[in-house]
Design goal:
alpha/beta, globular, eight-stranded mixed beta sheet, F-box domain-containing protein, Leucine-rich repeat, LRR (right-handed beta-alpha superhelix), 234 residues, LRR_dom_sf
Length: 234
């Protein structure tokens, strides 16, 4: 059992079967017979092969290793520098519902799963999301709210450089999405929605082209605020 879990790219790359480990990605860890069977099944469809042979087994193993009991006892979760792999890794932690401190830094994650998790974190006190891209699929985009709803229990919020984008690239071409960082997708700022956070005492925010009126509304709905940091974006 553990109360604190930190996951970053260095930790992940230390696992020989991590799906973005170069040797594993090249199937160098597989025997000739295993590679032959993989080719017979997938042929030259490297995208489906990457998803079903490399990503899915790693996620399944991680879920089994991090047992249900771990999700119950974990109070501090930090996901750092997962970058695009974060899209596939984030669902591992969607049942960590007793968090008090949650940090996500330099990662791309699925918008809907993150939105839904936030609605369940009833004891969350500190949330730090910085340099995060939230991804919606084209089918999710028309029916998804383009804002985040934070837990009423929050006492500290750090919200910096948060964007959202609509793309099917992670699902349609997972190999290209992870390995070809030059293949981009359109993103835009996701500003704070004015909402009542009665316990919020500390707020640090930064986004380009911030809507000042909406930000003032947000401040007015947080009566317990003692500290606000917002650098000039101009």
């Amino acid at each position: 059992m553990f109360s604190e879990l930190k996951v970053n790219s260095n930790v992940l790359l230390s696992h020989s079967n991590y799906f973005n480990n170069y040797n594993y990605y090249q199937l160098n860890n597989f025997t000739y017979l295993e590679r032959f069977k993989i080719f017979r099944k997938y042929g030259f469809n490297r995208e489906l092969e990457y998803k079903e042979v490399l990503i899915d087994p790693f996620i399944e193993e991680a879920v089994n290793t991090l047992s249900l009991a771990s999700s119950v006892y974990c109070k501090v979760l930090e996901l750092c520098a997962l970058e695009r792999e974060g899209y596939f890794l984030f669902p591992i932690f969607c049942n960590y519902l007793n968090l008090k401190i949650f940090r996500i830094l330099i990662s791309d994650i699925p918008y809907t799963k993150f939105f839904n998790l936030l609605t369940k974190l009833e004891s969350l006190q500190e949330l730090d999301i910085s340099n995060v891209n939230l991804i919606l699929s084209p089918t999710e985009a028309p029916i998804s709210p383009h804002y985040l709803q934070f837990p009423k229990s929050l006492t500290k919020l750090t919200y910096q450089f948060i964007k959202f984008g609509v793309t099917d690239l992670p699902e349609a071409r997972p190999l290209e999405f992870v390995r070809n960082i030059k293949r981009g997708y359109s993103k835009q700022n996701l500003n704070l929605l004015p909402q009542h956070l009665p316990n919020l005492k500390s707020l640090e925010v930064y986004n380009d082209n911030w809507n000042d009126t909406e930000f003032e509304k947000f401040l007015n709905m947080c009566p317990a605020l003692e500290y606000v940091y917002r650098p000039n974006s101009n």
